[in-house]
Amino acid sequence: MAVHSGFPGDELTDEELDVAYNVRRKAGPELFDRHMERYRAESGKAVAGLPGTPGVVYDEASGERLDVWGTGDGPRPVFLFVHGGYWMALSRHESAFMARMLHEQGIATVVPDYTLAPRATLEEIVRQVRAAVAWVHRHGRDHGLDPDRIVVGGSSAGGHLTGMTMVGGWQAELGLPADAVKAAMPVSGLFDLRPITRVYVNRTVGLDLDRAAALSPLLLPAERRCPAVVAVAEHDGAGFLEQTRRFGDHWGGGAPLVVPGRDHFDVVLDWTDPGTAMSRALLDLIRSV
Question: Nearest CA to 239 among 197, 195, 277?
Fold first, then answer.
């Protein structure tokens, strides 16, 4: 029998929590593989011939790299996209599918890698993503980026990591102003990690309840709440739908953007088309800062 600790959803059995958060199982292996192939194919198509600077080391401590895509004349606003994969899969190479659409709208894209679990702790992964923001702020102008117009977004685990750039208390240590992240768009994110301590992912990320709480954007102070669009797919996992609703309420942005007809994996692929609700929301957000 599970020991309950009081977080929302903790009354569920371990099997029920797995159903709520195991979106790969929900999709099934065939559909999941098709989605991953689309990530790779759409990213390759998006960056083919696009101006930019791939493979830049942004963090000397880890040696991790990022790609800059879609630069043009003068510094451009930048969308920094953090990939998902439950902190233990995927890379920047499958995660640039929005770069051409944004380039055509006068916006650059930055896609960082981060060291995957279990080689890195979740605390270290958070540090690396924040270091990527710091790199854009310090060095972006040299690469055609506007360091005063950084918008961060991410999907799934990348939505969690986006949330960890939205909260306060970390910027000064990296020499950043409190408003370095001007706006954010987490998609199908995890904002309270305490349920993760009881699902299969924790065999890899190894969280206890105290560490999970300390890494939960929903539970952390945010003196400054930057403009944000909090989005989720209509056919997402129940845990992601509930967490998105709760984070939207917490952040004060109103009801989340629920994208009809999409699931946990294909919702972000709407960013390849400027006419979708996802793209319109992102473009409006970037243009507002």
Answer: 195
Answer whether residue 61 is part of any domain.
yes
Q: Structurally, how many domains does the chain consist of?
A: 1
Q: Are 63 and 92 in contact (CB under 8 A)?
A: no
CATH code, domain carrying 115: 3.40.50.1820
> Is residue 26 within a helix (H) or strand (E), and if so which, with residue range?
helix 23-27
pLDDT score recorded for residue 5:
53
Residue 40 corresponds to which tokens in the numbers above? 């790779």
- Percentage of residues in the chain having pLDDT higher than 90: 84
pLDDT digits (tens, 9 = 90+) for 163-184: 999 999 999 999 999 999 999 9
Pair 160, 129: CB distance under 8 Å: no
2 found inside a domain:
no
pLDDT tens-digit series, residues 269-278: 999 999 999 9
CA 198 to chain centroid, in Å, comes to: 22
Residue 54 lies in a domain: yes
Domain that holds residue 132: 14-287
Residue 33 lies inside a defined structural domain of this protein = yes
DSSP output for 39-72: HHHHHHHHHTT--EEEEEEEETTTTEEEEEE---
Interatomic CA distance for residues 207 and 180, integer angstroms: 29
Token digits for 14? Answer: 């371990």
- Alpha carbon separation from 254 to 236, 249, 259 (Å, rounded): 19, 6, 15
Mean pLDDT for 54-77 is 97
Average pLDDT, the chain: 94
The predicted pLDDT at position 16 comes to: 81
